[in-house]
Amino acid sequence: MNGNLASFGPSIIRYQTEAGLENIRFHKTQCGVELLLNVGAGHELQQISPSFNVHDSGVYTTDSFEIYFFKKASGYVVLNQRKIQVRDNTVLFMSPFQKRQWELDKGPLDYTFLIFQEDFLNDFFADKLFTYRLLYFYQLDYPLDLAVQKEELESLCGKLTEIKSELVRPKVDSEHLVRSLLYYILLKLNRQYATQNNLPLEKPEHNYAFQFKKLIEQHVKEKQRIDEYVALLGISRITLNKAVQAQFHVTATHLLKQRLVFEIKNYLIHAELKVNEIAQVLHFSEPNHLMRFFKAQTGLTTSQFLADYQNGTIA
């Protein structure tokens, strides 16, 4: 593998295997602007690693946020345990460590990717909750794709090309231009995503809802009670629930249970663990407690879910 592709700009992606899955890690190089961000055309991913094949890939994860802008494509990707159709003029959103598998048709394929790490946005915009304010990341209730008009996609890709130019040929003010272009793209997509899914975009009175979402991502494996999160936040259950309802149109309990169910499903699908082992990893006191919780939330036993998933019944 070539670990220093000048044409790829100031950062690379290295492929490593962990726990039977291919894991793609983001690293900075020493050339150009040292940013944990990259932009490129689809063929550049295969230049980095021939093993990456959007026509027929294995299951893999990454440690970065990714947005794919498809001008031409057909097929699907299995992402977040969902089978998502990929079509022309589609934007696809991926969050860190989501397991995915591509199966795009062999035909005309034209797309641009935008990849960055959370630390990059936190530092770049001085907002530790910025990624949690973007409705399409860490999303379990609504779609992970967005249909856009051809003209709008061309406009977004044009701005991505400008970012690429600044990364490859940096100037003294390149970081400021990259910052402004990226901010525009992410917020523009957030507005369109909110409109498509009837989600609120009003400025929140406080950050409790976003802080709660971040804490769930950090602690879901060992904390499964709302009281544990309100203690971390230093607020009441009523205050937390009001904030979550206003921002996400669901209860705080729904967000927490939904994320825990997703974690259980991930272990069932991708890890060679028995239910009692999953219960131990997720700090359930008894395997039966996990199975009852899963059945109550999904209407299926763990065995039924896994069988349905393997048979393609659950898409």
TrEMBL record:
Methyltransferase recorded as keyword: no
Pfam families in alphabetical order: HTH_18
A molecular function GO annotation: sequence-specific DNA binding
HTH araC/xylS-type domain location: 210-308
InterPro entries recorded: Homeodomain-like_sf (IPR009057), HTH-like (IPR037923), HTH_AraC (IPR018060)
UniProt KW keywords: DNA-binding, Transcription, Transcription regulation
Gene3D superfamilies: Homeodomain-like
PROSITE patterns: HTH_ARAC_FAMILY_2
PANTHER family documented for this protein: ARAC-FAMILY TRANSCRIPTIONAL REGULATOR, TRANSCRIPTIONAL REGULATORY PROTEIN
Name by which UniProt lists this protein: Helix-turn-helix domain-containing protein
Organism this protein belongs to: Rufibacter hautae
